Amino acid sequence: MARIRHFAITPGTMPPGPRNAITDVPGVQVGHVTLSSGEVNTGVTAIVPQPGDLFQNKLTAAVEVINGFGKSTGLVQVAELGSLETPILLTNTFGVGTCANALIRHAIAQNPAIGRSASTVNPVVCECNDGVLSDIQAMAVTEADALQAIEAAQSEVAEGSVGAGRGMITFGFKGGIGTASRRVSLQGRKHMLGALVLSNFGKAGDLVLPDGRRPDPRVPREAEKGSIIVVLATDLPVDQRQLSRICRRAGAGIARLGAYYGHGSGDIVLGFTTCNRIPQQPETDVQTIERMSDNRIDRAFRAACEATEEAILNAMTAATAVQGRGGATRPLLVDWLRELPDKQASTAKFENKK
Fold first, then answer.
1. Entry's InterPro entries (predicted)?
2. Is 227 a catalytic residue?
3. What is the CATH number of the domain that holds 322?
């Protein structure tokens, strides 16, 4: 599996974690189910934030909507209450309801009182439209697929044309799932911030690599109608307000690559911290939390920006060829990157002969 660093391109300056993945944050796992049959190229990606019962022991969470052309579910309550109580599922636009049902059933299996003697549960599902490379009207994603993605969650993260990323496109190239991480130190303690993206955005021809090159996919430069979902995970001691501010900086990582958040693009960032858990049934009237000083938060801002940028590039370089609905395909960024040195060498020889 190719990643952007294999091509001597290093986004940013901060050091990555050992996997350079969202799963560098302790306890975070990722699973995929990929559906590829005929004109169907879609799937489900599950981010399991922590082991155990998330409904009873929630995570502090926040949302940043950069451009709201999207059909996700659960984000309003996350923004209001600042808590996450289910795994996060990523899928195609028409799979949101099905995945939400799967998350509800998953939570009820752990807590049969949900919706009866206990409160209802807030399933979180985010989406991108894979209708160019997949027959989205087939509505192929099932609840069983969603539950299988959760069960498949592990520390090693497959990237590219897998899971929800199977049919995604980025800047005219094949897109998909990508991930990256950054180390952040506070008071001598090492922390991690990781990003995972479902990358399906950007106008063809607008991509700008960190080294300044502008790859041309040579496909029609249509108006932007895609989306990107960024999931940020960290173990930093932050409250919801700080986490919301960190999520906002993921937008800088998206913009660095040439995006301008087009009218038809749904650009959403969902973040959570494994610090400062929120019990469903608190035993005290007052809860104590850890909170980093605001005058140190620039480290987290930079980490969110850099990890998001690299995750997008990893999604593109890890992507494999997909032939979809009506024979539609998109070129691979890795082909452009691999061919370029040969082209440059040929040009240099020609210039020397002159």
1. ArgJ-like_dom_sf, Peptidase_S58_DmpA
2. yes
3. 3.60.70.12
